[in-house]
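Q: What would this chain look like folded?
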Amino acid sequence: MQMGLDFTLVEDLVAGVDEVGRGPLCGAVVTAAVILDPQRPILGLNDSKKLTEARREKLFDEICEKALSFCIARAEVEEIDELNILHATMLAMQRAVEGLSVTPKLALIDGNRCPKLSVPAAPVVKGDSQVPAIAAASILAKVTRDREMAAFELIYPGYGIGGHKGYPTPVHLEALARLGPTPIHRRSFAPVRAALEARGVLNTGFAER
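A: My prediction, written as structure tokens:
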């Protein structure tokens, strides 16, 4: 796809696809695919990271109400460890697109590469700030994953998961070293593997992440 394309002129039935959670040390990578309804515009769509939590929550409900179709999908920790984070992300994106109730004519993928899909697809670098459907997908994915991390905070107290959302912050790294990995930590990621090895649990079957 030409990078100079005016995305406001793209034909209908275009799915925007985005992911959240490639960088964290724990939890699933969550993806979403959204086909917006041009007859029911949604104001204020933008890269989810540029929106407040309250605004994301409000837009989440509006997207779910107004979109022609949407699907939220994921790749679990075990799949991330088995496949690596890139391939697990591509798998989760594939699941999101294939899970749409309406078949898109084109899938626009945030980033610089596309998963294997049964429909035409094109990558869009920084697409979540250019393509409304990708922005909508980023909002659905982020709100979904953030809610999961808040729930895990209650299940695994002491790690601060509800605050850092699993990312390798100093608070998270300190807790990981002190408490050890939980079942939702990604064993293939270096800080988690180091914490396992420090407890005498060697985990050498994973490639460096």
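The CA atoms of residues 41 and 66 lie 8 Å apart.
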